[in-house]
Design a protein that fits this description.
The complex is a heterodimer of chains A (about 325) and B (about 110). Chain A is of the alpha/beta class and about 325 residues long. Chain A is about 40% helix and about 20% strand. Chain A has a 6-stranded parallel beta sheet, sandwiched between helices. A 4-stranded antiparallel beta sheet of chain A has the order 7-8-13-12, with no helix packed on it. Chain A has a 3-stranded antiparallel beta sheet with strand order 9-10-11. In chain B, helix 2 (about 35-60) packs antiparallel against helix 3 (about 75-90). The radius of gyration of chain B is 22 Å and the shape is elongated. Classes of the chains: A alpha/beta (about 325), B mainly alpha (about 110). Strand 9 of chain A pairs antiparallel with strand 1 (about 105) of chain B, so a sheet runs across the interface.
Amino acid sequence: MLLVSSLTPSGRPWVLESAARTVGHDEVVDLDALATECDDVLEDITAALAVTGAQFTSVDLIAGVRSLREVAAVVHAWEAYAARERRALVWIQGSVPQLIADLLALEALTDLAATSPTATTLRGRLAGVSQAVRSGDIEWLLGTPAQADAIERAGLEVAAAAGTKVAIRGVLVAPIPRKKDGWPKDIREAARSAYDRAVMDLHPVAVARSRSGAAPAFPAPAVTAAESSTMVDARGDRVFTLTLPGLSASEDDSAAHRVDVGTWSSDPAYPTTHVVVRFAGHAVRWEVDAILRRCRTIDAVVADDTIAVTFIPEPEQWPNAHGQSEGER
Amino acid sequence: MNEEMERPPWWLSRSDDDDTTGTTDPGSSSASGSGGFADMWSLLGTFGNVAGEWLTASGAGEHAEHGDPSEHPECMVCKVLVGVQAVAQPSNGPATATPLARTRWLSVRDA
């Protein structure tokens, strides 16, 4: 399934044309239209979240939350179209990274109520979609105009998507304004510059632009753009690094565009199970290697698209004096 | 020159047949981070209140008496409300004794 979105309404025809060429057909499923056909998923969500006796009150409220309707529609789309021979094109009007993040958060939330049969049912349905996201069976194609602000936003969207491990098929840049259409030179040059910047900033994500009135296909397989690693530095501390292409796209140093880094644990037995990166309204939650679960963090550094978090062993988690060396084996 | 200045940016133009939204600013489109579980959190809070009122009216529920959800981990409604916040909306708040830990933010240095 290929999810298709555009930062601006005018980009929709271009990115859909590109998507059609990529998958070989032009039948587009609109996620908003599916939102009226996914009552069964919404009922599962409602049942999992509601308290007994209040379902009839909560179903209308929960179904009214746009995010949940879209999550339910994606689940419905995956279950309805995954088995078909032709790869489905699903048009999504909102933010795909935000939608996938919400889906994954809801999946994590169902773990809270894992003993409930209704939550188990929902978790199974969500797990099918999240597995498809992680395996690359669900990919994403984004359209953007060649304008500096839009390219910046595209970069942040790509970084957020990379953080959810969505396979990014590519970023399509809409046609650059042409001289023969009367556009001033400074606008044309700024657009070319924005496109060149996108190519550089979003590597290894494929970036292509429409030319001669036609949008190109993205024939190469989608990439999982984020990279993480853990190494031991000269002092013996463990340094976790995570690179999210596009993270440094914003040149705005205001608090709203600051990158925050933190840690979170989904398991009370360990101090850290995930590193959290928060930026531009997105929150990436990245599970760390097993050995880092038994460590605590001391600081974080942000350099371009990469964040580095330093971990030191948590003494309580290493019962013998040689625990650290054992952990490294 | 003035006409050029007043003309909308070329990248904000809309196709004629597009009537999906009135928003043309990528910074304020529906793709912005204002939706999602932030809204869900808000509405689930409403849900909790409505459910609470319903249960109060029925005389059957104890959640209606729960002011701070984080203080009632045994309550399913509170548990879900806290869970949504902890999972989807990392905050700067202090760690709590709820089943899910809050995010601990680090001091970040720029390289």
